[in-house]
Each structure stands twice: as structure tokens, then as C-alpha cells.
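Reply to dn_fold:

You asked what the input looked like. This is it:
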Amino acid sequence: MIRLFVYWNGFVDRWYNGVMKSQMLMQHCEWSDPDAIPLYNDNIGLPYSYDFLPEPWWGWNPARKEFLHSVVINFNPGSGDIAQHRNCIAYSGSYSDIVNGGILPATEKWHYSKRAIPVLRALESLNYISGPYSIWNHLSIEVLPWHTKTANANYRKYITHASNAIQIFETVFSFAALASSHIENTKLKDKVIVKMNESNIAFVLKALANVGYTSKITVPVTSCPVEDGKFLEFMIDKLPHTKFICIWGSKSRNNFPGKRAMEWILSNIS
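and this is what came back:
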């Protein structure tokens, strides 16, 4: 698993130092050029996603030496702000240093409040963990590292590029699976939560299947009876020891469902 933290540190270093763009232009990079699609950071002025710090993961990492309690895969990291632009980012030679150094407090706050807290709070209510807990007990991993305001048609087109789909399996889903084996609580050990709805995960799994990584739904869409919230479970054939649980709400958009729904869902996953 450490090799994937090392990989992403190297990925961001190549991006920052300009090596990656040269590799992409020569088609010698493992990822395709997002500018060729193109991917935009936002819809105002259309700045390229490539000009903003890639965000492959956030939170728990071996350097923190904290207990890991949850791993969540996100569909996309949203727009980057000016502090994440390549001309502004305080880069010291390591992406891990950015995460651990408090350099992007707004990003840290978002992952803590929008991803870590809903899961950790539910685990605590169900007596699987006890507080206090922090962002360092949780790991967020993005399907793509590039900042985009929405997962629009160009974003989806980038996912389906064969080389990108391979990397999504090898450096995202495999990364999450390996990390989940280090989870300390019995409820989520060897389980990865995926913050996507049914249609989005179907799209991603089809892209993986097209490059040889097949999967199967093991628990169909199940609705929470006490509050807006749904989940399904799936497994990827080449990651047989990991269960993936998609969680979403019809009204929650990019947030997890409410507290009662999260507790019910975590109580009912297999």
C-alpha cells in the first residue's frame, strides 16, 4: 500500500515540475492529457484542470500513525480554488507534505465535514469506534485526481479512455482496497465506501470492465426506511477480498445521507 502513496507523490511531483506534460504530449504517460478533452476546473473563464494541484487522496496516511476507520472513494474532487493553482500552491516536493502540513485548510475541512464525520459519527453511534476522531482516521480517494466543477460529459469521456480506466483500477480502487485492509474497526475492515449513486457507479464499472476488470453487484439497491438514503454492494473480481458499498441519497447530492440513514445503512451492510 505504501507504494501507492509513493506513486501519487511522484505523480504530483511530475505535474509540478513539468515532466508530466512532456510525457503526455509524447504519449509516454500512464494517464492521458486532460487538456486534450479538455477538462476545466470550473465554468468561469474555463481554466484548465491541469493547472490546479491534482488531488488523488486526502486524510489518513502512514506518516500520521493514526488508526484508520474509513475509506471513501469520491466521483470527483470538485473545483480547485486559487490556493491550489500551480502558480500559488506552496509545494515543498511532496504531496503528502501538503496533506499533512495544513497548507490547504479548506480542503481538509471539506473532507473532514463532508466525508469523515458522517461515517465516523455513524460508527461511533453503533459502538464500533469511540471518539475523539479526526480527518487522520479517514482516507478519501478520488476516481480522478483532476479538479472539475462537475462530472460532466468530458469528465466521463476521460474516464473511459483505456489508459485512464486501467489507472483507475490500479491506483484508485486497488489503493482503496489495500487501505481498507488496515481499517481497525470490525464493521468496515476490508470494506470501501463509494460516494456515488447507482448510475455513476454503473458508468465507472463499465469503464473498468472494458479494460478487463469485471465486477458484480452482490446486494442490489436497498432503500433506508427511516430517512432518505440508499446503498448497494459490489465486488471487483480481481479484488476478491474487498467489498465496495455505494451510498447516496436522492436529495443529498454530493453529501452523504443524514445521520439516521447512515446508521441504518452501516447496520445493514453485509
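The two ends are 25 Å apart (CA to CA).
Hope that clears it up.
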